[in-house]
Amino acid sequence: MAKAIMVQGTCSSAGKSFLVAALCRIFHQDGYRAAPFKAQNMALNSFITAEGLEMGRAQVMQAEAAGIAPSVLMNPILLKPSSDTGSQVIVNGEVVGQMSAAEYFRRKRELIPQVMAAYGQLAAQYDILVLEGAGSPAEINLKSEDLVNMGMAARAKAPVLLCGDIDRGGVFASLAGTMLLLEPWERELVQGIIINKFRGDPAILSPGLRQLEEMVHRPVVGVIPWMPVDLDDEDSLSQRLTQHSAPGVLEIAVIRLPHLSNFTDFNPLERVEGVSLRYVSQLRELGEPDLVILPGTKNTMGDLAWLRQNGLEAAVQKHAARGGPVLGICGGYQMLGRELRDPLGVEHGGRMAGLGLLPVETEFAPQKTRTQATGRFLPLQGLFAPLSGVPLAGYEIHMGRTESTAPAVELAPQGEAPHPDGAAAQNVLGTYVHGLFDRPEVVEGLLRALCQHKGIAWEALRPRDLDAYKQEQYDRLAAGVRRSLDMEKVYEILERGV
């Protein structure tokens, strides 16, 4: 049975996911079979496993760091917000329904046996499990039904490393305050403190660390510097959604929809030297990009209404009318069609006109399509012709069925016969395939098309070997954390347990 250690944070975006990835990588480098585990994840970035099961992308990233294939056992509960007060609830990779926050809170206790069954199966396969908490363990209004923070640590008998984000300020107060709000049995589980995202001279921090240790009676096991590693982010707090890189040879604008999902689809484009990719949510931010992308969303009809109300729909239509390239993925592909119908109220009910840029119509259905798929682009006319015949691979996650009169892709879901997917109309392209740009051939085909349209040489861009680049980033993360963390103390905590 695996030994366990857990990373919890004083708040969301404290760096828990990256610290778990770093520990998974370090343990892997040290010769152990390590795996991540997060009992409950709330995120719109998800992934479909080889078995056709849905899980959070953060655990996929952590599994990659550990050198293993992702498994839904690593994330038994995934919540995908569809509104401010409700989420789609996914248990062991399968949709169990749509629930309000209050209903889910009432029913959480029923899910504990399934969480522990997944944990037990995973623990039987590995030497070390690195657990991740969610948000803060000091949410005193939620602790009675906790299954992801101290409740999970207690069930797994996992010692806890409590992490605070110094970059946002108030780290000493957040760490001391979190410890103050924990119950005595919860405080016993905390075996070490980590300061994360530090910029500056560690010597200046030392007096504060000593005072903190005296206050909370726990050792500070490391001060992790701010590290500009480039890994897949987890959720809507991602910095890449708000940062703006320097202008590039090619400018790509991704519409930041309110329920934006799977924005990790576009990370491979961002990693090409010469490409500037930015997320826009207001009309004044759009400018004149070389490509507009409508991404996936957990609420297609609601986000289409938002697009219409803030003027971005008209701007995208004008961009396309001028011959500007437009690409839609999943929900964004649905929006580009002529009409969306929801007769069963899967989303909002009723009908909505789409942007009318592709000859497709979508009808929502309660059954969710979840599958990995391979295929290739069909012969395309117009701007996207350089993609013709290019092989692709990725996965589908969607509730709708779309009828297209001008398919763009021949797609073969796992274990099924090939079928047409997507649509193309000169300078507009849409598909259901997430992870489309994980294949370098697709990145090259798209960028060649954009360069040709703009009248510049393809050689002005420098794509990276994505797999090699990812491995380099995991190694950089592990090296930085190993230098900054007292790994001897961490191994001691791991061996001692609770």
Automatic annotation (TrEMBL):
Record Gene3D superfamilies: 3.40.50.880, P-loop containing nucleotide triphosphate hydrolases
Residue ranges constituting the CobQ/CobB/MinD/ParA nucleotide binding domain according to the UniProt record: 5-227
UniProt domain CobB/CobQ-like glutamine amidotransferase: residue ranges: 251-440
UniProt GO MF annotations: ABC-type vitamin B12 transporter activity; catalytic activity
Active site: 330, 434
Pfam family, one: CbiA
Pathway(s) it belongs to: Cofactor biosynthesis; adenosylcobalamin biosynthesis
Aminoacyl-tRNA synthetase in keyword set: no
Keywords noted in UniProt: Cobalamin biosynthesis, Glutamine amidotransferase
SUPFAM superfamilies: Class I glutamine amidotransferase-like, P-loop containing nucleoside triphosphate hydrolases
Family that this chain belongs to: Belongs to the CobB/CobQ family. CobQ subfamily.
Protein name stated in the entry: Cobyric acid synthase
Species whose genome carries this gene: Candidatus Anaerotruncus excrementipullorum
Name of the coding gene: cobQ
